[in-house]
Write a structure and sequence with these properties.
Blueprint (H helix, E strand, L loop, with lengths): L1 H22 L5 H15 L1 H16 L1 H10 L4 H14 L6 H21 L8 E2 L3 E2 L5 H18 L11 H21 L4 H26 L6
Antiparallel strand pairs: 1-2
Helix pairs in contact: 1-2, 1-6, 2-9, 3-9, 4-5, 7-8, 7-9
Length: about 220
Amino acid sequence: MIAFFKLILYTPLLNLLIFLYNNVAFQDLGVAIILLTLIIRFVLYPLFYKSFLNQTLMQKLQPVITKIQHEHKHDREKQAQALMALYKEHKVNPFSSFLLLLIQLPILIALYHVFLNTPEGLSPTFLGLIDLSKTSILIVGLAAVAQYIQGKLTLPKIKPNEEVPQATKIAQQMVYIGPAITLVILWTLPAAIGLYWLISSLFSLAQQLYINRKIAKLDIRL
């Protein structure tokens, strides 16, 4: 299993990083990591897009979901049928985020090992200023901020005096919990991993802005 993991993910990602470092990134490991991150995100763009779109639509549909759950709170079967009909009508997959996590996890593990064990011959610096083999408070902070902004963009607008659904309250809490977890995780890790996290978060932020624009044009009747 370990040999298969190395063959399919670790070795290709490591070789791509070395290629970018030597041929495209002017032998700057930070630039090579940024390019590698962008390549990964463009390859996975359809999956991230679908997941973010589903997540945003789920937030927008939350008042209807809460209403259905209240109306059929004594009949689980009717509640499930009504919710499935709602998801089908708006082409929403409530499990897309979980599926994306399953796909992302092996890639994150492989990248963790790639960045944690920087190959010999590669200078672990970014723009000659940041040692990517050590923790960078700047990169960690920027990664947390980018994740916070992206999380805020997923939240629906709440009208004055409007009751906030429980799921939305949880999402509001996660906007703060997510960046806090990011700080805790990245605080002791090499800045190379933090840089990947930062660029990936910035890519997600841009993707979320695009999705929000698209959804704003949709005719979703609540």
